[in-house]
């Protein structure tokens, strides 16, 4: 996703961080958190240890300023990382037409 499509929350809310500040794995974990998976379920799906997921989630909280999963999902929606039911979605270019 191009960074130009991301919106940052005001710094006064303590949740302003760009996509570039997160690793691809951290972004992947945010998407899985948004689906409602527990850290154990994320670990199983990604075939990594739960402790590794715990560390990633902790790092994500530190980088985004989120204090819990709900705040993290709000951050992700505000920054165009995830969308729910067409609400608060970023606009991405349409894929090229393939004949």
**Biggest sheet descriptor:** none
- The name CATH uses for the topology of the domain at 19-78 is Arc Repressor Mutant, subunit A
**What is the 3D form?**
globular
Q: What is the second-level CATH architecture of the domain at 19-78? A: Orthogonal Bundle
CATH homologous superfamily grouping of the domain at 19-78: Winged helix-like DNA-binding domain superfamily/Winged helix DNA-binding domain
What percentage of amino acids are in beta strands? under 5%
With helices defined by DSSP (H or I, 4 residues minimum), what is the helix count? 4
What is the percent of helical residues? 40-55%
What value does the average pLDDT take? 78
Give the structural class: mainly alpha
Number of strands: 0
Summary tags:
99 residues, Arc Repressor Mutant, subunit A, 4 helices
Overall description:
This protein is mainly alpha-helical and 99 residues long. The protein has a domain at 19-78: Winged helix-like DNA-binding domain superfamily/Winged helix DNA-binding domain (Arc Repressor Mutant, subunit A, Orthogonal Bundle). 44% of the residues lie in helices and 0% in strands. The chain is built from 4 helices and no strands. It has helices spanning 24-34, 39-46, 50-64, 69-78. Helix 1 crosses helix 3 (50-64) and helix 2 packs across helix 3. Mean pLDDT is 78; it is low at 1-14.
């Amino acid at each position: 996703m191009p960074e130009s499509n991301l919106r940052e929350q005001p710094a006064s809310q303590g949740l302003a961080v760009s996509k570039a500040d997160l690793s691809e794995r951290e972004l992947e974990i945010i998407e899985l958190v948004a689906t409602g998976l527990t850290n154990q379920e994320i670990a199983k799906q990604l075939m990594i240890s739960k402790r590794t997921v715990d560390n990633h989630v902790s790092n994500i909280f530190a980088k985004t300023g989120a204090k819990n999963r709900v705040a993290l999902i709000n951050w992700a929606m505000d920054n165009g990382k995830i969308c729910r039911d067409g609400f608060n979605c970023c606009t991405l270019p349409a894929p090229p037409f393939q004949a």
